[in-house]
Amino acid sequence: MPKVYVAGKIQDNGIELLKRKGFKVDLNLTDKDLTREELKDIFSKYDAVITMPTDNVDSDLLSSASKNLKVIANYAVGYDNIDERAAKKSDIVVCNTPGVANEAVAEHTFAMIFALNKQLKVADRFVREGNFKQWDPNAFLSHQLWGQTIGIIGLGRIGTFVGQIAFGGFKMHILYFDIARSEDFELLCEAEYTDMRSVLSLSDIVTLHVPLTTDTRGMISTEELKLMKKTALLINTSRGPVIDEKALIWALKEKEIAGAGLDVYEHEPEVSAELIKMSNVILTPHTASATIETRERMSELVAQNIIDVFEGREPVGLVN
């Protein structure tokens, strides 16, 4: 009976699927991330491990793996926490959960846009502090989204969904930059493909949807922020290190941009105290994909990835 260890709390449907297929499943029932030593011990004993995106699975950790360890199934779309090349050298399959969080992350992106654009954080505090004495026609004025320009950097599945919401819901003008052009997207959303500098300089809202790679790490820094409109908003629901946070804090303090919405952070889970103090910044704890529907699909897919490997099929989420 193959043994699977689940390194964090996942929805029950995936666990039950594994059990029905004859796997022995052990769980981390705490609310804490596993320590490095705990992970090493687990990797030396199990045939498959479901890892969390907070687990740093590097070559050193992989060197402790049992020869029986066949698959690491990451409970995330991203997999930058795993050295998939080192895993491949050890004949360990790495999988992720692609395509399950598109709608949820796109929704979260717009939740941040709404909150910033309508100044909901400040307006909510204004009411709670007892300052609402009479209606003021000039209080908390904002521009409507209808007809504004949104710039999408990274046109994967999530970026495409964001574009569809922007165009279909608000008739926003769409600029986008990606390593590959999509004529289908351009036709569907009347979008314009252009370079990143133009996306940054011409957009009222810039939203990031890129994976973390050597090319994207720090891709938004001082020079890029200076290109943006002083009235622009920056949204990041992708990976924290794609933004240089010191540069972002500078840009917000100097009013180089109007606001930012961040679901991910450069040194996650550490969040800058300066960002926390800012009223024109919306912060969420890496929960863009946190819907019940998404988590259930993720749980099922990590389980199915493991089952496919053990039954000799190529898993949907194959990374390496």
TrEMBL record:
One of its GO terms (cellular component) is cytosol. It comes from the Bacteria. The lineage of its organism: Bacteria, Candidatus Curtissiibacteriota. Belongs to the D-isomer specific 2-hydroxyacid dehydrogenase family. GO terms for molecular function: glyoxylate reductase (NADPH) activity; hydroxypyruvate reductase [NAD(P)H] activity; NAD binding. Residues 110-288 form the D-isomer specific 2-hydroxyacid dehydrogenase NAD-binding domain. Keywords: NAD, Oxidoreductase. CDD domains: GDH. It holds the Pfam family 2-Hacid_dh_C. Transmembrane segments: none annotated. This is D-glycerate dehydrogenase. Residues 5-320 form the D-isomer specific 2-hydroxyacid dehydrogenase catalytic domain. The keyword NAD applies.
